[in-house]
Design goal:
hydrolase; Alpha/beta hydrolase family protein; two-stranded antiparallel ribbon; 8 strands; six-stranded mixed sheet; hydrolase activity; about 160 residues; Rossmann fold; alpha/beta
Amino acid sequence: MAEPEIVAVAPGMNTVRGRLKPFDPAHPSVDLRLPPGVTKPPLVILVHGGGGARDQANAMALLHADGVAVLGFDAYRMNGFDRHSDFWIRNMTYEARQRMIYSTALGAYRWAATLESIDVTRLHLHGLSNGADVVANLAAVVSPAHVRMVFAGGWRGQGLACRIA
């Protein structure tokens, strides 16, 4: 199957076609921060919303400052797309955003569950907006032996953040 590409489906509206790229822990958008002096910390995987990875920057900084390991990534950039956030929100179909974010987040979870530097029995998933929908769906496929909590903030039809455990 071909590399992922942006394809117009209507004037001003696009989708993504082609095989999505797998999660790559060496990709420049991957941001893993381990707290200094903490042995085997819990890890929060932060799943961005429709606007891209900058959606989670503040949450990453605050959690890390409190001694929690954090993992962030940009699913769009990982698939070879570097566009401004307004493009993803206004000119990309919901399903295309969800497919990219979901496949990358699932790969990030699978990779994180193998890390020796964290407590793999205390993984947490946090999603904002489009990312909230993704982590709510990930809750059905991750192992309870790894994931303690799923935080879905602002998912469709919900409005306020909630905890799914």
